[in-house]
Amino acid sequence: MNAVTVDDLLARERRGDRTALVDATGREYDRHWLCTSSWKAGNFLRHSGVRESVTVGVVGEGPLALLAFFGTTLLEGRTRFDPPTDLANEDAFRALVAPTESGWGYELPPGAQRVYYGDQPDEPGVHHFDAGLWSENPSFPPLSIEPETVLVTDGERTLTHGEALEAARAVVEEHDLETDDRVVVRAPLSNPGTVIAGVLAPLLVEGTIVLTDRAESDPEKRGDVAVSSDPAAESARIDVDALEY
User: Fold this and answer.
1) pLDDT tens, position by position, 168-208
2) Residue 222 CB neighbours (<10 A)
3) What number is the average pLDDT over the span 110-123?
4) Given this model, what pLDDT does residue 207 score?
5) Residue 235: pLDDT above 60?
6) Where residue 219 falls among pLDDT bands split at 50, 70, 90?
7) How far apart are CA 208 and CA 1, in angstroms?
8) How many angstroms separate the Cα of 172 from the Cα of each of 50, 102, 186?
9) What would the DSSP string read from start to end of 145-165?
Protein backbone atom coordinates (compact mmCIF):
# COMPACT_ATOMS: atom_id res chain seq x y z
CA MET A 1 0.00 0.00 0.00
CA ASN A 2 1.19 3.50 -0.81
CA ALA A 3 0.68 4.93 2.69
CA VAL A 4 2.27 8.32 3.31
CA THR A 5 1.55 8.53 7.05
CA VAL A 6 0.43 5.91 9.55
CA ASP A 7 -3.15 7.18 9.65
CA ASP A 8 -3.46 5.96 6.04
CA LEU A 9 -3.28 2.42 7.43
CA LEU A 10 -6.47 3.12 9.39
CA ALA A 11 -8.44 4.73 6.57
CA ARG A 12 -12.11 3.90 6.04
CA GLU A 13 -11.42 1.84 2.94
CA ARG A 14 -9.09 -0.40 4.97
CA ARG A 15 -11.97 -1.76 7.02
CA GLY A 16 -12.98 -5.35 6.41
CA ASP A 17 -13.47 -8.75 7.97
CA ARG A 18 -9.90 -10.03 7.57
CA THR A 19 -8.12 -10.61 10.87
CA ALA A 20 -5.83 -7.69 11.73
CA LEU A 21 -4.83 -8.54 15.29
CA VAL A 22 -4.59 -11.57 17.56
CA ASP A 23 -4.02 -11.05 21.28
CA ALA A 24 -1.96 -13.20 23.65
CA THR A 25 -5.01 -15.35 24.46
CA GLY A 26 -5.66 -16.12 20.80
CA ARG A 27 -8.67 -13.81 20.45
CA GLU A 28 -8.95 -12.36 16.94
CA TYR A 29 -9.91 -8.82 15.94
CA ASP A 30 -10.79 -7.87 12.37
CA ARG A 31 -9.79 -4.78 10.40
CA HIS A 32 -13.15 -3.14 10.88
CA TRP A 33 -12.68 -3.34 14.65
CA LEU A 34 -9.10 -2.06 14.46
CA CYS A 35 -9.93 0.98 12.34
CA THR A 36 -13.14 1.94 14.13
CA SER A 37 -11.67 1.39 17.61
CA SER A 38 -8.60 3.45 16.73
CA TRP A 39 -10.87 6.33 15.68
CA LYS A 40 -12.74 5.99 18.97
CA ALA A 41 -9.44 6.02 20.86
CA GLY A 42 -8.40 9.23 19.12
CA ASN A 43 -11.70 10.93 19.89
CA PHE A 44 -11.48 9.86 23.53
CA LEU A 45 -7.85 10.88 24.03
CA ARG A 46 -8.62 14.30 22.58
CA HIS A 47 -10.73 14.91 25.72
CA SER A 48 -7.60 14.26 27.78
CA GLY A 49 -5.67 17.00 25.97
CA VAL A 50 -3.80 14.85 23.47
CA ARG A 51 -2.92 16.91 20.41
CA GLU A 52 -0.11 17.67 18.00
CA SER A 53 3.44 17.40 19.38
CA VAL A 54 2.54 16.17 22.88
CA THR A 55 3.82 12.87 24.28
CA VAL A 56 1.58 10.06 25.49
CA GLY A 57 3.03 7.28 27.60
CA VAL A 58 1.56 3.85 26.94
CA VAL A 59 2.14 1.01 29.39
CA GLY A 60 1.46 -2.57 28.28
CA GLU A 61 1.47 -4.43 24.98
CA GLY A 62 -2.07 -5.71 24.49
CA PRO A 63 -4.83 -4.55 22.13
CA LEU A 64 -5.77 -1.53 24.27
CA ALA A 65 -2.16 -0.36 24.35
CA LEU A 66 -2.09 -0.52 20.53
CA LEU A 67 -5.36 1.42 20.34
CA ALA A 68 -3.87 4.12 22.57
CA PHE A 69 -0.91 4.31 20.18
CA PHE A 70 -3.13 4.58 17.11
CA GLY A 71 -5.41 7.12 18.79
CA THR A 72 -2.42 9.26 19.70
CA THR A 73 -1.15 8.94 16.13
CA LEU A 74 -4.43 10.20 14.70
CA LEU A 75 -4.12 13.29 16.92
CA GLU A 76 -0.55 13.94 15.68
CA GLY A 77 0.89 13.15 19.09
CA ARG A 78 3.92 10.98 19.79
CA THR A 79 3.82 7.71 21.75
CA ARG A 80 6.40 6.53 24.23
CA PHE A 81 5.82 2.88 25.09
CA ASP A 82 6.75 1.80 28.63
CA PRO A 83 7.99 5.22 29.79
CA PRO A 84 9.99 5.60 33.02
CA THR A 85 7.99 6.07 36.21
CA ASP A 86 9.42 9.53 36.97
CA LEU A 87 7.97 11.86 34.33
CA ALA A 88 7.54 14.93 36.51
CA ASN A 89 10.00 17.03 34.49
CA GLU A 90 8.77 15.97 31.04
CA ASP A 91 7.01 19.16 29.96
CA ALA A 92 5.66 17.72 26.69
CA PHE A 93 4.12 14.72 28.46
CA ARG A 94 0.33 15.02 28.30
CA ALA A 95 -1.25 11.67 29.19
CA LEU A 96 -0.45 8.26 30.62
CA VAL A 97 -2.41 5.24 29.38
CA ALA A 98 -1.74 2.34 31.70
CA PRO A 99 -3.35 -0.67 33.39
CA THR A 100 -5.35 0.40 36.43
CA GLU A 101 -3.24 -1.70 38.79
CA SER A 102 0.06 -0.07 37.78
CA GLY A 103 -0.81 3.51 36.79
CA TRP A 104 -0.47 4.82 40.33
CA GLY A 105 3.29 4.17 40.25
CA TYR A 106 3.97 6.96 37.72
CA GLU A 107 4.77 10.55 38.68
CA LEU A 108 3.43 12.92 36.02
CA PRO A 109 4.06 16.60 35.29
CA PRO A 110 1.40 19.16 36.28
CA GLY A 111 -1.63 19.02 34.01
CA ALA A 112 -0.95 15.57 32.60
CA GLN A 113 -3.92 13.22 32.57
CA ARG A 114 -4.18 9.62 33.72
CA VAL A 115 -6.10 7.16 31.53
CA TYR A 116 -6.36 3.65 32.93
CA TYR A 117 -7.64 0.47 31.31
CA GLY A 118 -8.81 -2.80 32.80
CA ASP A 119 -10.62 -2.42 36.11
CA GLN A 120 -12.63 0.73 36.73
CA PRO A 121 -10.24 3.18 38.48
CA ASP A 122 -11.23 4.40 41.96
CA GLU A 123 -9.08 7.53 41.90
CA PRO A 124 -10.95 10.78 41.21
CA GLY A 125 -10.06 12.48 37.94
CA VAL A 126 -8.74 9.32 36.30
CA HIS A 127 -10.34 8.43 32.97
CA HIS A 128 -11.39 4.86 32.17
CA PHE A 129 -10.18 3.93 28.68
CA ASP A 130 -12.42 0.89 28.28
CA ALA A 131 -15.59 2.82 29.07
CA GLY A 132 -14.52 5.71 26.89
CA LEU A 133 -13.96 3.46 23.89
CA TRP A 134 -17.36 1.86 24.37
CA SER A 135 -19.22 5.19 24.35
CA GLU A 136 -17.08 7.28 21.96
CA ASN A 137 -17.97 8.38 18.44
CA PRO A 138 -16.92 5.69 15.90
CA SER A 139 -15.85 8.16 13.23
CA PHE A 140 -12.98 10.59 12.91
CA PRO A 141 -12.54 14.00 11.23
CA PRO A 142 -10.49 14.21 8.01
CA LEU A 143 -6.74 14.30 8.61
CA SER A 144 -3.79 16.07 7.05
CA ILE A 145 -0.72 14.71 8.85
CA GLU A 146 2.73 15.53 7.50
CA PRO A 147 5.29 12.71 7.06
CA GLU A 148 7.70 14.72 9.23
CA THR A 149 5.35 14.44 12.22
CA VAL A 150 6.92 12.47 15.06
CA LEU A 151 5.25 9.10 15.61
CA VAL A 152 7.13 7.45 18.48
CA THR A 153 10.01 8.15 20.83
CA ASP A 154 12.05 5.95 23.12
CA GLY A 155 13.26 8.91 25.17
CA GLU A 156 16.52 9.22 23.26
CA ARG A 157 15.48 9.51 19.63
CA THR A 158 12.31 10.11 17.68
CA LEU A 159 10.86 8.40 14.64
CA THR A 160 8.60 10.21 12.19
CA HIS A 161 5.69 8.80 10.20
CA GLY A 162 7.74 8.94 7.02
CA GLU A 163 10.78 7.24 8.55
CA ALA A 164 8.65 4.53 10.15
CA LEU A 165 6.80 3.66 6.93
CA GLU A 166 9.99 3.66 4.86
CA ALA A 167 11.55 1.20 7.31
CA ALA A 168 8.35 -0.90 7.38
CA ARG A 169 8.36 -1.18 3.58
CA ALA A 170 11.96 -2.37 3.74
CA VAL A 171 10.89 -5.08 6.20
CA VAL A 172 8.07 -6.14 3.89
CA GLU A 173 10.42 -6.44 0.93
CA GLU A 174 13.30 -8.14 2.74
CA HIS A 175 11.09 -10.74 4.42
CA ASP A 176 8.58 -11.16 1.57
CA LEU A 177 5.61 -10.38 3.78
CA GLU A 178 2.28 -10.90 2.07
CA THR A 179 -1.41 -10.44 2.74
CA ASP A 180 -2.62 -12.60 5.65
CA ASP A 181 0.91 -13.42 6.86
CA ARG A 182 0.98 -13.60 10.66
CA VAL A 183 3.75 -11.59 12.33
CA VAL A 184 4.40 -12.66 15.92
CA VAL A 185 5.59 -9.85 18.20
CA ARG A 186 8.27 -11.19 20.54
CA ALA A 187 10.10 -7.93 21.33
CA PRO A 188 8.95 -4.96 23.47
CA LEU A 189 7.05 -2.13 21.81
CA SER A 190 9.34 0.30 23.64
CA ASN A 191 11.84 -0.56 20.89
CA PRO A 192 10.81 1.51 17.83
CA GLY A 193 12.00 -1.36 15.65
CA THR A 194 9.24 -3.53 17.10
CA VAL A 195 6.63 -0.95 16.13
CA ILE A 196 8.07 -0.86 12.61
CA ALA A 197 8.37 -4.61 12.04
CA GLY A 198 5.68 -5.98 14.33
CA VAL A 199 2.89 -3.44 13.83
CA LEU A 200 3.35 -1.27 10.75
CA ALA A 201 4.83 -3.85 8.37
CA PRO A 202 1.93 -6.33 8.70
CA LEU A 203 -0.59 -3.49 8.44
CA LEU A 204 1.01 -2.34 5.18
CA VAL A 205 0.30 -5.70 3.53
CA GLU A 206 -2.93 -6.41 5.41
CA GLY A 207 -1.22 -9.11 7.40
CA THR A 208 -1.95 -10.02 11.01
CA ILE A 209 -0.27 -8.67 14.15
CA VAL A 210 0.05 -11.51 16.67
CA LEU A 211 0.70 -10.36 20.23
CA THR A 212 2.27 -12.65 22.83
CA ASP A 213 3.15 -12.57 26.51
CA ARG A 214 6.72 -13.40 25.39
CA ALA A 215 6.75 -16.43 27.71
CA GLU A 216 5.24 -18.90 25.26
CA SER A 217 7.20 -22.09 24.75
CA ASP A 218 6.46 -22.44 21.04
CA PRO A 219 5.39 -19.13 19.45
CA GLU A 220 6.24 -20.42 15.95
CA LYS A 221 2.89 -22.19 15.92
CA ARG A 222 1.16 -18.82 16.01
CA GLY A 223 2.60 -17.19 12.90
CA ASP A 224 4.78 -17.09 9.82
CA VAL A 225 7.58 -14.83 11.09
CA ALA A 226 8.61 -13.54 14.52
CA VAL A 227 9.79 -10.07 15.49
CA SER A 228 12.48 -10.55 18.10
CA SER A 229 15.85 -9.41 19.42
CA ASP A 230 16.81 -12.91 20.60
CA PRO A 231 19.23 -14.65 18.19
CA ALA A 232 18.25 -18.01 19.68
CA ALA A 233 14.58 -17.46 18.80
CA GLU A 234 12.64 -18.62 15.76
CA SER A 235 14.45 -19.31 12.49
CA ALA A 236 12.00 -17.10 10.57
CA ARG A 237 12.89 -13.97 12.47
CA ILE A 238 13.00 -10.22 11.96
CA ASP A 239 15.80 -8.87 14.14
CA VAL A 240 14.57 -5.52 15.46
CA ASP A 241 18.07 -4.53 16.55
CA ALA A 242 19.32 -4.86 12.96
CA LEU A 243 16.71 -2.59 11.39
CA GLU A 244 17.83 0.67 9.83
CA TYR A 245 15.68 3.71 10.49
Assistant:
1) 999 999 999 999 899 999 999 999 999 999 999 999 999 99
2) 19
3) 96
4) 96
5) no
6) very low
7) 15
8) 31, 35, 17
9) --TTSEEEE-SS-EEEHHHHH
Quote the pLDDT of residue 18: 94
Residue 27 DSSP SS3: coil
Triad 41, 215, 120: Cα angle to 5°: 35
Half-sphere exposure of 206 (CA within 13 A, CB side): 13
The DSSP 8-state label assigned to residue 62 in this structure reads S
User: How far is residue 31's CA from residue 129's CA, in Å, rounded to a whole number?
Assistant: 20
Q: Residue 46: in which H helix or E strand, if any?
A: helix 31-46
- The pTM for the full model equals 0.94
Q: Name the residue among 21, 56, 58, 54 with its Cα closest to residue 37.
A: 21
Query: In Å, what is the CA distance from 133 to each residue of 37, 46, 67, 125, 175?
Result: 7, 12, 10, 17, 35
How high is the pLDDT of residue 99? 98
With the CA atoms of 110, 116, 120 and 126 taken in that order, what torsion angle do they form, in degrees rounded to the nearest 10? Answer: 10
Measured in residues, the chain has a length of: 245
Residue 124, C-beta contacts closer than 8 angstroms, at least 6 positions apart = none
Average pLDDT over residues 66-89: 97
Q: What is the DSSP letter of 54?
A: -
Whether 125 shows a pLDDT value over 60: the answer reads: yes
Q: Give the integer Cα–Cα distance in Å for 174 and 114.
A: 40
Task: Give, as one character, the DSSP assignment of residue 140.
Answer: -
Residue 10, C-beta contacts closer than 8 angstroms, at least 6 positions apart: 34, 35, 38, 39, 70, 74
Report the alpha-carbon distance of residue 222 to residue 191 in Å, rounded: 22
Mean pLDDT of the chain: 92
